[in-house]
Amino acid sequence: MTRDLDTARDLGTPRDTDQPRDAARPRDTAQPRDAATRPDTADQARGPAPDPASAQHPAGVPAGSGRAGRRRGLRRLAAVAMVAGPGLVAANAGNDAAGIATYASAGSQFTYGTLFFMVLVTVALVMVQEMAVRLGAHTGKGLGALIREQFSLRLTALAVFCLLLANTGLVVSEFAGIGAAFQLLGVPKWAVIPPAAVLLWSLVLFGSYKWAERIFLVMSLAFFAYPVAMVLGHPDWGQVGEHLVVPHLEPGKDFILLAVALIGTTVSPYMQFYAAAGVVDRGVKPADYKLIRADAVLGAVFACVISLTIIIATASAIGGTGPLESAAQAAEALKPVAGHGAELLFAFGLIGASALAGAVVPLSASYAIGEAAGVERSVSRSFRDAPLFLGLFTAQIVLGAVVALTPVDVIQLLIGTQVLQGLISPIVLVYLLVLTNRRAVLGDAANGPRYRIAATVVVVGVAAMSTILLAQTVLGWFGLG
């Protein structure tokens, strides 16, 4: 399970020697992992053989020529590529059917007006994903397990409930997205959704985690159609640049609602659970933190860049026409790339995006509940070894497929689930922030003073947007909104 990471270290990537080894711990379960204490890491504790290309002179000047420096750079890139996984998958799973619908609606309704807000959301996602994988790498435990160990039973139940509530609608939306994609191709959803559910279920249960993860990454390549569509759509680059750097916020309820949906689809609660649990499932150790952090940061940036291109491409095609109403309307953004085949290309991308999240979302809930219950949890185990974990995953797949077969307004469902995600996100982020602030959990790897302040600002900002939307909604019930 750790072969990729061991190979990555052999390629010359430096070990993270700044991480804790003997941090104080009020409980044994909260102690940061010491790689040297694990029976299978004796060789790793001695560290990799020195790389002649990375040796330094006594004066601190790197030895070797510029060619050696380029070799070191290529080795680092190769090392990052070999461990690419949990962070990249988790972040890009946010660009699912619901995410595409939300970003496309932002472009059609407010043209470029949400771009600066998305830049802020990108910063938030990078920080949140980094904290999640740091917890997994340094403790060897997922977010659910750490919440169970560090918080009371009631607070643990609250975290699990919030995740289940948010994920229930998402699982339905993923299968609804698959159905909508095939309907664009003239195939009824009842003929597609059941086989899709069986395929995803089989992929996770009968394949290995590594292969499932690689397949999810390949599926995400469909997102590259949007950057091309953005360029070929000839947007107003002056307006794009201005809205990327100049803050633009509107007090209206429609803008606030969409802003919360953008937060929900970009910084979804399940992403943090999945990223941390995925790191643990891969057997990542503290020495691997730099590599897994690169995976998380690059994955978050890549996902948000794609999100920005979806907004810009849609704004160029149908900007100012109001809220998105159908999948066919969203496909208009891809006409500069595919012409009359835009719906076909959009359908392909929607299938890939929905399938990616269709496995990630139920897995995140299964991981969280399995961790909170303290039972076996891994996609590499059999039903006999992990009945609760795999049973929950199966139940969510079945529920999502069954509900998606009923008559639903797909676009409203997709955006509505993201609003729910945005309302719940602040609660989960508080748990994440508290855990990464505690030196008893992470030792020297805990948030420093500056990072703690920045992360607190992120959580407060997300909570403020959710509170404003709730207040507007409640006031609207009484005719005051």
The separation of the N and C termini measures 54 Å
In helices, the fraction of residues equals: 55-70%
Series of secondary-structure elements, N-terminal to C-terminal: HHHHHHHHHHHHHHHHHHHHHH
Beta-strand content bin:
under 5%
Radius of gyration: 22 Å
Low-confidence stretches: 1-31, 34-65, 79-83
Globular, elongated, flat, extended or rod-shaped: what is the shape? Answer: globular
**How would you characterize the largest beta sheet?**
none
Structural class of the secondary elements? mainly alpha
The helix count comes to 22
The pLDDT mean sits at 78
Strands, total number? 0
Account of the 3D structure:
The chain is 70% helix and 0% strand. The protein has helices at 3-10, 42-45, 66-83, 86-93, 97-110, 115-139, 143-150, 153-184, 193-206, 209-219, 225-232, 237-245, 253-266, 269-281, 289-318, 327-330, 335-338, 342-373, 387-404, 410-437, 439-442, 449-477. Helix 4 (86-93) crosses helix 18. The chain is globular, with a radius of gyration of 22 Å. It starts with a helix and ends with a helix. Mean pLDDT is 78; it is low at 1-31, 34-65 and 79-83.
